[in-house]
Amino acid sequence: MSTTDPDALLGPADIRELAAALGVRPTKQRGQNFVIDANTVRRIVRTAGVRPDDTVVEVGPGLGSLTLALLEVADRVTAIEIDDVLADALPSTVAARMPGRAERFALVHSDAMRVTELPGPAPTALVANLPYNVAVPVLLHMLATFPSIERTLVMVQAEVADRLAAGPGSKVYGVPSVKANWYAEVKRAGSIGRNVFWPAPNVDSGLVSLVRREPPRTSASRDEVFAAVDAAFAQRRKTLRAALAGWAGSAAAAEAALVAAGVSPQARGEALTVAEFAAIAEHRSA
Predict the structure, then answer these.
(1) What average pLDDT does this structure show over 129-141?
(2) Phi-psi domain of 143 (left: phi exceeds 0; alpha: psi -120 through 50; beta: other)
(3) Cα(103)–Cα(233) distance, rounded to whole angstroms?
(4) DSSP letters of 181-223?
(5) Can you spell out the DSSP letters for 11-70?
(6) Distance, CA of 255 to CA of 70 (rounded, Å)
(7) Separation between Cα atoms, residue 2 and residue 54, nearest integer Å
(8) What is the rounded distance in angstroms from the CA atom of residue 95 to the CA atom of residue 38?
(9) How many CB atoms are closer than 10 A to CB 86?
(10) Rama region for 277: left / alpha / beta (φ>0; ψ in -120 to 50; rest)
(11) Is the pLDDT of residue 218 over 90?
């Protein structure tokens, strides 16, 4: 781990100065809320358990608040940025504020949803302040595309954090909860107040930790399992016999798959674990 200037991180004045110099106005369309508090980004890095041997991938680095905090600790950081102006400016910010770490930084100028490979060593951790409007699809895409990611910590809207970390039986348990559970043990890892952002969002934020584990053992593919999950929650008030009828081909076929998987046809999707969905998908064709 390199020693860096304690003033290398970005504070409120630095963020506003950088934004003004670049002519950047945070847009709602891209869910841009820049973190302006150095203590908060250091806390995120600590909570993520970033180690000196980690290659971290960051999505949506913005002006570089979290990027710089990650570079203080990690071996390498690769940032994925879709915004032309921000992508163009970030390498210069890193070079100016952490010259000794600049060669450890790489930028991928792209939409994270389209990224299928990254430069340098395979990423071992994903740490990101995810744009609220695309947080779940981006998270699931990254976990699916880069199986080398062992640990993830994302900052998302509090409501989304609750949904991702919810367990079966919870009112907010749904598609994001089940799909995230396919890849990882998921838990809430803290809350972040509104005043550490510029502009301050009108919602609270939450941290979600995901530690990679083996997916459920099943002969069904991930896509087949996820199709069953989507069908179950598309009509979440219906029993699974009814909700999965279209997916299975008929209500009778859905019932047969459910019974074979050891799941009550009268149950609802919100009561099932990801392993139970995997078992249902496995018995669909049978």
Answers:
(1) 93
(2) alpha
(3) 46
(4) HHHEEEEEEEEE-GGGEESPPSS-EEEEEEEE-PPPP-SS-HH
(5) -HHHHHHHHHHHT----TTTT--EE--HHHHHHHHHHTT--TT-EEEEE--TTSHHHHHH
(6) 50
(7) 13
(8) 18
(9) 25
(10) alpha
(11) yes
The model's pLDDT over 39-98, given as tens digits with 9 standing for 90+, comes to 999 999 999 999 999 999 999 999 999 999 999 999 999 999 999 999 999 999 999 999
Question: For tokens 């009509």, what's the residue?
Answer: 235
Are the CB atoms for 155 and 131 separated by under 8 Å? no
Q: Which residue has the tokens 């890095």?
A: 45
Q: Tell me the two tokens of residue 6.
A: 């304690």
What pLDDT, on a 0 to 100 scale, did the predictor assign at position 166?
Answer: 98
Residues 6+ apart with CB under 8 A from 109: 81, 82, 84, 87, 88
The letter for the amino acid at 221 is S
The model's pLDDT over 1-46, given as tens digits with 9 standing for 90+, comes to 444 566 799 999 999 999 999 998 766 555 568 899 999 999 999 9
Instruction: Enumerate residues 6+ apart whose C-beta is below 8 A from 262.
Output: 276, 279
**DSSP conformational letter for 129:** E
C-alpha to C-alpha distance for 116 and 112, rounded to whole angstroms: 9
For residue 172 the two structure tokens come to: 């907010």
Render the burial of 147-156: b for 16+ CB within 10 Å, e for the rest: eebbbbbbbb
Structure tokens at 229: 């999950």
Instruction: Tokens for 44, please give them.
Output: 């995120």
Q: Which residue has the tokens 């016999």?
A: 241
